[in-house]
Amino acid sequence: MSAKLENALGTTYINDQTIATIAGMCALDCYGIVGMTAKGAKDGFAQLLGRDNVARGISVTTKDNDIIIELFVILEYGISIQAVAENIIDNVKYYVEKYTGLKVSCVNVTVESIRA
User: Fold this and answer.
1) Could you point out which of 3, 27, 39, 51 has its C-alpha 20 to 30 Å from the C-alpha of 73?
2) CATH of domain 2-115
3) pLDDT of residue 53
4) How far from 55 is each of 8, 11, 64, 77, 79, CA to CA, in Å?
């Protein structure tokens, strides 16, 4: 699925994968995050994804140009999970809205693992 922006000059379609990449890059810039992991890591094994695969750790759903983003992250040991999650949510929401012009209705953060 993709989001659609229309104006007098034409129509712009933004792919969900593009939105996921924007969200992932913004999340990785947040303090306390080690990286992204594949969606729903099995058996407690969370594989750290590199910057080039960051979109694999994100699920984007677009309905009527409202965006729902789910991030699966690995955090640094000793950091407040709540504080880091709130920072990720705020940054991702702000930058996705800024770069795409679309409304982000929900950002969910799932902490898959903690790394030292």
Assistant:
1) 3
2) 3.30.70.1350
3) 63
4) 32, 25, 22, 23, 24
Asked if residue 97 lies in contact with residue 104, where contact means CB atoms within 8 angstroms, the answer is yes
DSSP SS3 for 14: strand
Distance separating alpha carbons of residues 59 and 72, to the nearest angstrom? 9
Q: Where are the domains of the chain?
A: 2-115
Residue 28 has which token pair? 């990785």
Residue that the structure tokens 């409304």 belong to: 103
DSSP classification of residue 83: H
Q: What are phi and psi of 113, to 5 degrees?
A: -165, 165
Q: How many residues does the chain have?
A: 116
Instruction: Tell me the C-alpha distance between 106 and 55, whole Å.
Output: 17
Phi, psi of 57 (to 5 degrees): -95, 15
